[in-house]
Design a protein that fits this description.
The structure is a single chain. This protein has one domain: TolB, C-terminal domain (Neuraminidase). The chain contains two helices and 24 strands. The relative contact order is 0.13.
Length: 306
């Protein structure tokens, strides 16, 4: 008993030193499948795909707001009406609208053509005019044999999601440029960030490559899944992208230039990032070991660079 306690203390010290070396503060620990962080009115909201939950951390305690079995909670976005759009990344995907207390207000299980959202909804982003884009990724299997990623669009005031792009190799995170003219999309298996021109009606055109991550930073491991996960764009138009299986957050300029690498000590599976007040801090969701079937992880806070 004493020996196990000593070992436990030693492990805790090593973890603390590792965190300190990366200037990280662990905000929430023992999250099973951490994703979708959002800072809203001083509260940090986040999801967990293993437990299919949405939670709120108020700076002291964590409260589970929503538990929808079989959803596989993933991306989370705040609408202009102060509701959440939640991505269900289960094989039988769905998009949920929730109030800030976690109550389900609406559920979409099909697109405008009646096609089921099978393959899983991965992430969602809100545009300045109140529209929304969502990614349908496809199954997370190894090797990834199905190229079935899609982008869906919900026009302001509409009740139907319309398919606006397809044939993406595991469509993942989303971001919109400050001028609202460009949509960025993570193509995880391609280790690539794509960009599309946003047309006046919300449709997309001029698909092209924005950044190939292995040309910006060396891969830590060889994996189909090394590529970009979710992203956020700051008030200067810079992109912060979580590199899945990379253990880091990459900061890119609007031109795709690598500005900074945030190495994350808490785990190898960085999944998403959110801004704190004034964009001075970053909240990073990270899985300690992506080989863990429960995806145990945490949310850490790090200082941003300007």
């Amino acid at each position: 008993m004493k020996r196990s306690r000593i070992v436990g203390v030693a492990v805790s010290i090593m973890l603390a030193l590792a965190t300190a070396s990366a200037q990280e503060i662990t905000i929430v620990s023992n999250v099973l499948g951490p994703e979708g962080p959002l800072s809203v009115d001083g509260n940090l909201y986040y999801v967990a795909w293993t437990t299919s939950t949405l939670s709120k951390w108020d700076g002291r305690t964590t409260t589970v707001l929503n538990h929808t079995p079989g959803c596989g909670h993933n991306g989370l976005a705040l609408t202009k009406q102060k509701t959440f759009l939640l991505a269900c990344d289960d094989e039988h995907g769905a998009i949920l609208e929730l109030d800030l207390a976690g109550k389900e207000l609406r559920r979409w299980e099909v697109d405008s053509n009646g096609h089921k959202l099978d393959g899983g909804i991965n992430d969602i982003v809100i545009t300045a005019n109140g529209g929304a884009y969502a990614t349908l990724s496809g199954p997370f299997v190894n090797p990834p044999v199905a190229v079935m990623g899609k982008i869906l669009y919900l026009a302001p005031g509409s009740q139907k999601w319309v398919e606006v792009a397809d044939d993406l190799n595991y469509a993942n995170g989303l971001g919109v440029s400050l001028d609202q003219k460009t949509l960025y999309v993570s193509e995880t298996v391609g280790n690539c960030i794509l960009k599309f021109t946003i047309n006046g009606d919300g449709s997309l055109s001029r698909r092209s490559n924005f950044a190939l991550l292995n040309l910006l930073t060396p891969n830590k491991i060889n994996s189909w899944w090394i590529g970009p996960d979710s992203m956020k764009i700051d008030s200067n138009g810079n992109m912060y992208v979580a590199q899945l299986y990379g253990g880091k957050i990459l900061k890119l300029s609007p031109a795709g230039k690598l500005l900074h690498i945030f190495e994350i000590a808490a785990g190898t599976g960085t999944t998403n990032v959110a801004f704190g007040e004034g964009e001075r801090d970053l909240y990073v969701t990270v899985v300690r070991d992506l080989n863990d079937p429960e995806a145990r992880g945490s949310i850490v806070k790090i200082r941003n660079t300007k």
